[in-house]
Design goal:
Layout (H helix, E strand, L loop, with lengths): L1 E6 L12 H12 L3 E6 L1 H7 L7 E3 L5 H7 L4 E3 L5 E3 L2 E4 L4 H14 L1 H10 L25 H12 L7 H7 L4 H12 L3 H19 L4 H7 L5 H12 L3 H8 L1
Parallel strand pairs: 1-2, 2-6, 3-4
Antiparallel strand pairs: 5-6
Length: 249
């Protein structure tokens, strides 16, 4: 038996974000040995019920800092699509829900049913649990200033855009001068240099995990063209985008 908790969109704000009836229900279900599945920020509810202490949990990279601050006794992963820790199953939501569902079907009904599901879903394959999420947030967990983290999140969410320092500063309710000072203090780089590194990091991930062309990836990452992307990429990684892919082969 499975109890599936899907709290879509990260709506956990306010003084009392957790419904006590749901929390008590989860505690009772866990006591009875029921498998609990936390999708998206449903894992927050499981942790709020005191059920994730010392357990592995898989959340979206966007919610990493929020989860760690609220539940520091959990073992948090953002580099996998889902995690199964005994009777606790967690995943970051979105498309990873399909991958977790296929794993459950395989466990109970076998691969033949999985193949049938894939055909109905017009999918070629289900991704394994250790298929990586786009790995951003884990690189920022050491930053103590919430304004810097918020600025980096804003950059990640607007990779295709040409963001000015003033726009980023306005988003975190500070001045351009203060934003620059904070980035120099915590990252030893300017905000725009960090923004370019975020774009390049995303581009490297796409080169390693997708079949998109270098031109497509360049536009996805906010560069004007493939040549512009390739020049900065080689400067950062001492290897061209094409070279990265050849290295994988």
């Amino acid at each position: 038996m499975y109890v599936i908790l899907w709290w879509w969109g990260g709506l956990l704000s306010g003084e009392k974000p957790y419904d006590t009836d749901i929390v008590n229900y989860l505690k009772k279900a866990d006591h009875q040995g029921v498998n609990l599945v936390g999708l998206c920020t449903g894992s927050f509810y499981m942790a709020a019920a005191g059920l994730m202490s010392g357990r592995k949990a898989c959340v979206h990279w966007y919610h990493f800092q929020e989860y760690m601050e609220a539940f520091p006794d959990s073992v948090l992963l953002t580099d996998e699509l889902f995690v199964v820790d005994r009777n606790k199953l967690t995943c970051p939501g979105d498309s990873s829900v399909i991958d977790l569902a296929l794993w459950i079907i395989d466990r109970h009904l076998g691969k033949e049913r999985v193949v049938k599901c894939l055909r109905h879903l017009l999918m070629d394959w289900g991704r394994p649990h250790n298929h990586p999420q786009t790995p951003f947030i884990k690189d920022y967990s050491f930053i103590s200033d919430p304004r810097v983290r918020k600025a980096l999140f804003f950059m990640e969410q607007n990779i295709r855009e040409s963001l000015a320092v003033e726009t980023i500063a306005e988003h975190i309710h500070t001045s351009s001068r203060q934003l620059t000072r904070l980035f120099k203090l915590h990252l030893k780089k300017s905000p725009l240099n960090c923004f370019r590194e975020v774009r390049l990091s995303y581009g490297k991930w796409m080169l390693q995990h997708t079949d998109k062309s270098v031109t497509e990836i360049a536009y996805e990452c906010g560069f004007s063209d493939a040549s512009h992307f390739s020049r900065w990429f080689k400067s950062r990684y001492d290897m061209t985008p094409v070279g990265i892919r050849k290295h994988l082969d």
